[in-house]
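Request: Mind sharing a record?
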Amino acid sequence: MHSNWKINNASTPSMTVRKKSGVPLLIFFTCLICYLFFLSGHHYSIDGVVMFQYAKTLLFDHSFTMAPPLIWGREFVTSKWPIGLTLVYIPILSILSITVFKNNPEISEIPYDPSQSHYPALLNNRPYEYSSFLNPFITALTAVTLYQVCRSMGFSQKKASLVVLVFGLISPSTVYTKYDYAQSLATFFIIVSIYFLIRGFTYDKKNIFFSGACLGFGVLTRPELIIMPGFFMTGLVYFIAPSIARLPKPSLERLSNVFWFSVPLIGAIILNQYINYSRFGYWFSTGYQQGSDYFNLNFTHFTNAVLGNLVSPGRGLFVFYPLSLLSMIGIVHLYKRDLRIAILFTSITLGFLVFYSTWNDWGAGISWGPRFLIPAIPGFTVLAFLGFDSLSKTIHLKALPFVILVALLTVGAIVTVQGLVFNFLEFYSKFELSGPMIVGGLYHFRPEYSPIINGWGNLFSPSHFDILLFQRRSEPVYNLLIMLLSFAGGIITMLWITFFHRAEE
């Protein structure tokens, strides 16, 4: 019996946090230092460009309309994307406007040149460069919260730390800290919501309320979270609350739980729709347009999308994150140990896979790896390690599970390096993909269109790496930053070696 991996059936807050330590702080700074080292400081998508520039309009113009409009192929007078990431940029821009960019109009103006349909200054601009630490910071916080979730599930400190370091350093979530998409922020709110809901299993209405509130913030970032995992989390609040049988009026108490979970969630939904009404003039508007933004329930499309999201060389989860193969074993293992938590993790792993496979543009446009599944990466990571635990208990050849684990982690680390070092925009630009090809997504099944197979050009030319520090290393200040981050990384590595070497407390 591997007691360090045992999942306690009574997942209560008492097992979550023990005095100890600075393990969460060590996790946070480990992840943040790694992310800052590989930071690029530029945009990758029109999604990110609009969400960032729209924050300027809200903050400095106090308006929902961009004037002049943002031009990228067409005019954007308002942002069609969910408001969550835009709102998070606002305090950063506020601080920059009174510090680095004080009296500098660059902080409040949207780059504009009507003579250019794709103005390069929108992809590369200083205000975003100074703000691009946001996703690294958010993902480092996500790693810390995931550690607390693992501890709540009964993982030992070492095992919880290992799970989190894999998630934080060698997974697709690591690569997405470079990018300007909203998936990292959605991941954070999902994990925090799950953390509070697990604490709420002890019939704690305060934590149930906080869980709903965090999921509500997630809805502002990705409205589809109302469905996945919102539907399942609401069901858990109603059906699987402990001690219900011992209460005098269990049905009323169940409804009370749902009430405390739903109030902040419904409030966030109303706020989201009010903002959409203010932007588009309709209460039920989502901002998205017909076409690639809508669902496709055709069976052939769904089958292609599921296979594409799992095994295609251009988007497949099992290709870009091979460790997730073990999650299939882990989810069976978890259902035997703790039904409540198993339902939670099913809703954010299989739920996301099914939901986004019904999306017309299932491949998530021009992007790197399984973009739509990024919010499910923490769940896949936890389940994969539970799968490893199950293999360790059932396979008589004890070394084999470790060989499998190391092999999957090694391949995953190589894939992560590709995403961190190279710019996927440059890779895909050479193919001149048409709009219908991008939306159809079938090109992802062809190896030549996969960046992790065919995107290793300039491997031995650091000046071409998509890393800000390397591109500017001729400047003394950036050379100094490289040395400081490398030195800090060395110290943190020694701390981790010491941590894993000592006996478990």
